[in-house]
Every structure is written in C-alpha cells, then in structure tokens.
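User: Predict the structure for this protein chain, please.
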Amino acid sequence: MTKPLVALVIVGAIAGGGCGGSPDGASESLQTGVYEWELSDEYLIDHGIPSERAVKESGHQEITLWEDGTFHAAWRTADNSTGSCRGTYDEGDDRLVTFTWTSGCFGDWEMTYAVDGDTVTWRDQKALPPYDSDDDQNTTKAYNDVPWTRVGDAPSEGQEQEER
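Assistant: Here is the predicted structure, written as structure tokens:
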C-alpha cells in the first residue's frame, strides 16, 4: 500500500502518545472540522516504513470531517507532491471509528479515539479486509499513530459542495 494511507490516513490518523483524555479513559466527543498533522520521514522509518517510501510519503497531512459522515483527506509530501482521497467515517460504540475510502485510495481501517481540547489521539488501529496483511496493519498503525490537531471548522454547506 502506498498512496491510500498517506492521506490518513494519512488519515489518517494520528495517535502516538496514548489515548489522551482523563485517566479513566473518558474524553470529549470527536468533532467535525479540519485536522492537521505531520509525518516525518524519520518517524515513518522508525515505525517500519521502508526508507524510499517514507521519503516519498512524509509531509503535511490534513483531513476534513463533515457532519454527514464524509471526509476528505489531502497531503503535501516533503518533495512537494500533493494528493487527496475521499471517504466515509462511521462512529460506533466505545469511540470506535471506521474509515472507508470511496475515491482515490484503498485500505480501509478502524481505530478508537480520545479527544483532549483540539487534539485527537488514536489507538487500536486495525487494517480492514481485503487489505489487512501484516504489512497493511503496520502501515495502518504507522500512518495513524500521530495526534491530529483540530485547526478549524469544516467548510460551510456552500463551500462543502465545492470541496466534494
């Protein structure tokens, strides 16, 4: 897998330092909006991503979550390449969120979140079939193990239609 998880999953994700929130595991709810994070090539290499791929896929990540359960993931790599993908997300029980690509990427995943202010951390990342090999699982975890920072609201209805 190359391009699919750069966005999150690039998305994606996403949570490195634990689950955040209060000591008993409670946290705020996941909010719609625009989130950003960085993936350095050093971080990706340290987390098992081959160096050639890490250099090509490191950089600035952004995801927008809308109230209707859709998301847009975009990235600008360290070599100034850009890309984006679209999908849906569904929050189930116990803060488990499933992300499903609908355009531009593949390799769906699920993970649980905790929110502390504007920071979302992720844990229990799981690659979903059919892209759930050991390599896919490692990629899912690496790309989604960095905290997201909420930097603003999702675009309004008029702008949202232009975005999508």
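The two ends are 24 Å apart (CA to CA).
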